[in-house]
Specification:
- By secondary structure, the chain is α/β, with parallel strands linked by helices.
- It folds into two domains: 177 residues, Vaccinia Virus protein VP39 (Rossmann fold); 65 residues, Helicase, Ruva Protein, domain 3 (Orthogonal Bundle), CATH 1.10.8.
- 35% of the residues lie in helices and 19% in strands.
- The strands form two sheets. A seven-stranded mixed β-sheet has the order 4-3-2-5-6-9-7. The protein has a two-stranded antiparallel ribbon with strand order 1-8.
- The longest helix is centred in the last third of the chain and has 15 residues.
- The protein is elongated.
- The chain starts with 15 loop residues before the first strand and ends with a helix.
- The chain binds S-adenosylmethionine (SAM).
Length: 261
């Protein structure tokens, strides 16, 4: 822990990991290789950074808290530190493959994961710690109570696996809930990248009205083609959004986009 630091900022989700064993386990969950740089989101006092610098990868860090960014830079000069906001970061500009890691600020973990999975041109691997409830939503499958737009969006872009659960006692200050570590890897190369804007719009429309039937939600754009396709998928006009898998959402989004053009 860096000395002389101000109080943790709740607004920045600053729950700092204290347990070296957990930090090591998180870092060793990432396959850090020499030819793929690793960007750590929110290094804080460097709980993960201190282990990352022992890997063969070149380490970058993105920290919104300028005071912490400076402290990381002075403690590990070999780390390239960017004092910037991950919510406003131009992920598209990271050319080549990148790995990501972070004990993510809990208040913004979902939008950060939404963004990086869809906007980073080439993900090699990512390991994130998030609230367990967020990990449950990210990994949920159709029909699950917590399956929703976030699950379908992220699973449309990457493969995702929950690795292990971490209790609140290893953080200062202590969060109220459990956390979980997840690993994201690219989807198989033969799968197409989804039509982002169309998928985003469809997911927003569907999950804002998740209790309604598809024929009601899609009434303005309903057609025989959609009805036939649902039938071919073993779905019905009365099915609800939570019954559609991520690939089914992608296909439906592409059909709706094609019917508009
Ligand atoms: N990695 C450290 C650890 O494990 O102890 C800190 C984790 S703490 C949960 C989240 C960190 O993300 C804090 O250092 C916080 O300042 C930083 N942070 C919060 N919001 C951020 C944002 N939008 N962009 C970049 N960093 C952010």
């Amino acid at each position: 822990m860096t000395r002389g630091n101000p109080l943790p900022k709740r607004s920045l989700g600053q729950n700092f990991l204290q347990d070296q064993g957990t930090a090591r386990k998180i870092v060793s969950s990432l396959e850090a290789v020499s030819n793929v740089p690793v960007l750590e989101i929110g290094p804080g006092h460097g709980a993960l950074t201190r282990w990352l610098v022992d890997t063969p990868a070149q380490i970058f860090a993105l920290e919104k808290d300028v005071w912490l960014a400076l402290a990381v830079k002075s403690q590990w000069p070999q780390v390239t530190v960017l004092a910037a906001d991950a919510m406003r970061f131009a992920w598209e500009r990271l050319g080549g493959p990148w790995s990501l890691i972070g004990n993510l600020p809990y208040n913004v973990a979902s939008p950060i994961i939404w963004d990086v999975t869809s906007r980073l041109p080439r993900l090699f691997q990512a390991v994130f710690m998030v609230q367990k409830e967020v990990a449950d939503r990210l990994t949920a499958t159709p029909g699950n109570r917590v399956y929703g737009g976030l699950s379908a969006w992220v699973q449309s872009h990457v493969r995702i696996r929950r690795l292990f659960v971490v209790g609140p006692e290893v953080f200062r200050p202590r969060p109220k809930v459990d956390s979980a570590v997840i690993r994201l890897t690219p989807r198989p190369p033969e799968t197409n990248r989804p039509d982002g804007p169309a998928l985003r719009q469809l997911l927003n429309t569907c999950f804002q009205q998740r209790r309604k039937q598809l024929k009601t939600i899609l009434r303005p754009v309903w057609s025989d083609t959609i009805a036939d396709w649902l039938h071919s998928q073993g779905l019905r006009p009365e099915s609800r959004p939570e019954e559609l898998s991520p690939p089914q959402f992608q296909t439906l989004a592409a059909m709706l986009a094609a019917s508009k053009s």
